[in-house]
């Protein structure tokens, strides 16, 4: 058996992530590796932190990029904040809310599940009612942008309700960061995590996280140590902290962080609000074209994510065959349905660098040819 270099095909990524990574970010990735405690690298990490504070719209000191994917960001929020004696309300309206619930169960804390219909936003009134009856609740957790369904929940209102009931909030922003309006400080979010591979259009495998002062206070005054050594934020923070000498915690993925830095510079150059608007504009363009093809959306208009368009597979169409033709003949990836929507829906991503006119045009013309 002989082995040669792996040369991936050039795809257009319009699935649920990863999204297209720009040549600018890929070339940042290919720059020479330097030591992860090299003063030049540490200086770049400080910029990554400042750029993440901008992307999250926060002044939280504990804002950093975990060397692991979004699921690790999720786990970091839960294992650092939630202890076995705590009650956590998890709002579930798709696959990823279910993963949050699983985290609570594994910690051995008391899980209260608030289920909303898949394909709809989390029901804010139902959360208010539930918290009224659950005075022992300490945390409310929800997914801002449910990638499994394409629904956007009203994070601002859900946080207001949580605060009214003296609860802290844990928010999944894996698919929303950079693509949907998100204001961590203004909305009073206590712990939030995201992923590098969605609307930031960076390579997968990094999870930006941010913790409010209230959340940091809980981490500092825990009765027991955080059960995960790698994800213990008080240890990770001593590596990311701007003050004094950096303590070795683990070897950071140096080149991936160059790539994240570049993708955040691109976001900063464009401007956060312009990026949100671009996602919205591309979504409108796609939605108009899909309508002409007679393809229907799963999510009601007011609750739709611009960056993740979940559409019903038209009657009589072979799901796997169409996606295979798009991939093999058009080099175009769209996503299959997940969970309750497996085999029933497609997920068309317009995330970050992928959210552009050329991609929308390619997707619409390819679908037009394949669906007739
Ligand atoms: N949360 C949401 C909403 C996601 O869409 C994903 C991934 O698609 C995750 C969490 C998990 O992120 P990762 O696959 O990077 O671990």
From TrEMBL:
Q: Which cofactor does it need?
A: pyridoxal 5'-phosphate
Quick one: which residues bind substrate?
347
Establish whether keyword Transferase is in the entry: yes
Q: Does the keyword Transferase apply?
A: yes
Name positions with the PTM N6-(pyridoxal phosphate)lysine: 198
Q: Which residues form the Aminotransferase class V domain?
A: 33-337
Spell out the Pfam families in the cross-references.
Aminotran_5
Q: Which GO terms describe its molecular function?
A: alanine-glyoxylate transaminase activity; L-serine-pyruvate transaminase activity
**UniProt cross-references to InterPro entries, sorted A to Z:** Aminotrans_V_dom, Aminotrans_V_PyrdxlP_BS, PyrdxlP-dep_Trfase, PyrdxlP-dep_Trfase_major, PyrdxlP-dep_Trfase_small, SP_NH2Trfase/AEP_transaminase
GO-annotated biological processes: glycine biosynthetic process, by transamination of glyoxylate
Q: Which UniProt keywords apply?
A: Aminotransferase, Pyridoxal phosphate, Transferase
Family statement drawn from the similarity comment of this UniProt entry: Belongs to the class-V pyridoxal-phosphate-dependent aminotransferase family.
- The protein in question is named Serine--pyruvate aminotransferase
Q: From which organism does this entry originate? A: Thalassotalea marina
Q: Which gene produces this protein? A: agxT
């Amino acid at each position: 058996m002989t082995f040669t270099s792996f040369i991936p095909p050039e795809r257009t990524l319009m699935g649920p992530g990863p999204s297209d990574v720009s040549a600018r970010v890929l070339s940042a990735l290919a720059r020479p590796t330097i030591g992860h405690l090299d003063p030049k690298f540490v200086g770049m990490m400080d910029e990554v932190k400042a750029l993440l504070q901008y992307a999250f719209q926060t002044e939280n000191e504990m804002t950093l990029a975990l060397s692991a994917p979004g699921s690790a960001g999720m786990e970091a929020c839960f294992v650092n904040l939630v202890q076995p004696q705590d009650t956590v309300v998890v709002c579930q309206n798709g696959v990823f809310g279910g993963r949050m619930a699983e985290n609570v169960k594994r910690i051995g804390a008391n899980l209260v599940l608030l289920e909303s219909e898949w394909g709809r936003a989390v029901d804010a009134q139902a959360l208010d009612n539930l918290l009224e009856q659950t005075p022992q609740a300490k945390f409310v957790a929800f997914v801002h942008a449910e990638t499994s369904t394409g629904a956007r929940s009203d994070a601002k209102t859900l946080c207001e309700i949580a605060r009214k009931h003296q609860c802290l909030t844990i928010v999944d922003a894996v698919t929303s960061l950079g693509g949907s309006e998100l204001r961590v400080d203004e909305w009073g979010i206590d712990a939030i995590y995201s992923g590098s591979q969605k609307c930031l259009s960076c390579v997968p495998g990094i999870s930006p996280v941010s913790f409010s002062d209230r959340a940091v206070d809980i981490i500092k005054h825990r009765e027991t140590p955080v059960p995960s050594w790698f994800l213990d934020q008080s240890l990770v923070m001593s590596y990311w902290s701007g003050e004094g000498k950096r303590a070795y915690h683990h070897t950071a993925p140096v080149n991936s962080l160059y790539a994240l830095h570049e993708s955040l510079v691109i976001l900063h150059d464009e401007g956060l609000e312009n990026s949100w608007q671009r996602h919205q504009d591309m979504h409108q363009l796609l939605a108009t074209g899909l309508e002409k093809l007679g393809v229907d959306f799963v999510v009601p208009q007011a609750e739709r994510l611009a960056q993740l368009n979940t559409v019903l597979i038209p009657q009589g169409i072979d799901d796997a065959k169409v996606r295979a033709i798009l991939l093999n003949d058009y080099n175009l990836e769209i996503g299959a349905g997940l969970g309750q929507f497996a085999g029933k829906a497609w997920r068309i991503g317009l995330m970050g660098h992928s959210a552009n006119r050329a991609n929308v045009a390619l997707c619409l013309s390819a679908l037009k040819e394949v669906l007739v």
